[in-house]
User: What shape does this take?
Amino acid sequence: MSDYVIQTENLIKTYGTKVKTNALKGVSLQIPRGSFSCIVGPSGHGKSTLLQLIGGLDKPTSGSVWIDGVDISSLRDSKLSEIRGEKIGFVFQSFNLLENLTAAENIQTAMMFAKKIKPSTKRANELLDMVGLMDKVNAKPSELSGGQLQRVAIARALANDPPILLMDEPTGNLDSKSEQDVLQYIYSIHKQGKTIVMVTHSSDIASKAEAVIEIRDGQLHK
Assistant: This one.
């Protein structure tokens, strides 16, 4: 088993046909298993694009992405979905919860995408308890604060016990108190051995990371 759970090789992503935009220009990196890494850099320079390619939410124009020894950039959609469901948990700035479902039900929906874990009310409740929201099991997103919504989103990302968590500005929409609450859970999850890769504009958060990946003009900035 490689010490690197995530690797990219000469990753290039180009958008458009007539007018092309080069979002990434040959990014090669290695992320150690169990590490906490932050992707930083100016807005519009490729941070979120890199995270989406690592997570298999988009495919590179060329180059490759390896997750736990598997080149996901060449996989069929069905196999790619299977790996995303079992290996990767996602946390987004906008929460991306289903408004018509309760907190527990939102977590259970994530369990439908993995073979090793069946949708379970018990596990959903345990995860909500872990992020301090056991009293919000039956609450719908409209009944929750921003910090609570993000904690539900973190619990959902952990639903299938993935080794990797990818986070895109997870505290970007939160007030300072909610940000600290959410970060507390993120740091505790990392201590449990999860690999965390987070896009952030916060220099304070980046200062606590084990590795900082700076992207400028679609390239690694060293």
